[in-house]
Design a protein that fits this description.
mainly alpha
């Protein structure tokens, strides 16, 4: 199931791979919350008024948690064993967080004015991802 490690083929900064590992942990933690908490964190953490649609919202949060857990495990696998894929996975993280920021602040959440904690976290994560993506693409000096 796990092919040979590609770490010896990775030429970018090791710090970028470690940062990807941190992103993996930051995907696993909310994923576990969304999947395992009775309300998925929608009420307790995000303070959403779920009303009559609570079962639907909780189900959507659990579904999102499942994808976050899988994505976080993949990020950790790349950071620890398949580092040659670090630039690709940082690019995917950049796309994911950029789309999330646009939805949260401009198109979807910007309309409601309600911003759960992740909406603020994405603003911090985006420039960090860009910086570490650049490092992952810059060959190390020997």
């Amino acid at each position: 199931m796990f092919p040979e490690s590609s770490n010896n083929q990775y030429k970018g900064a090791i710090a970028a791979a470690w940062f990807l590992g941190v992103l993996g942990l930051f995907s696993l933690a909310p994923g576990a919350i969304h999947y395992l908490m009775p309300d998925g964190g929608a009420g307790v953490i995000a303070h959403l008024d779920m009303g009559e649609r609570a079962p639907l919202i909780i189900g959507v949060f659990a579904w999102m948690g499942a994808t976050q857990i899988a994505y976080g495990l993949a990020q950790l696998a790349v950071a620890l064993r398949y580092r040659a894929l670090t630039p690709l996975f940082l690019t995917l993280a950049l796309i994911e967080r950029s789309l999330g920021a646009v939805a949260a602040w401009i198109t979807k959440g910007g309309v409601s004015g309600h911003h759960p904690p992740e909406n603020y976290g994405v603003l911090v994560a985006l420039p960090l991802i860009v910086g570490f993506l650049a490092l992952s693409l810059t060959p190390r000096r020997r």
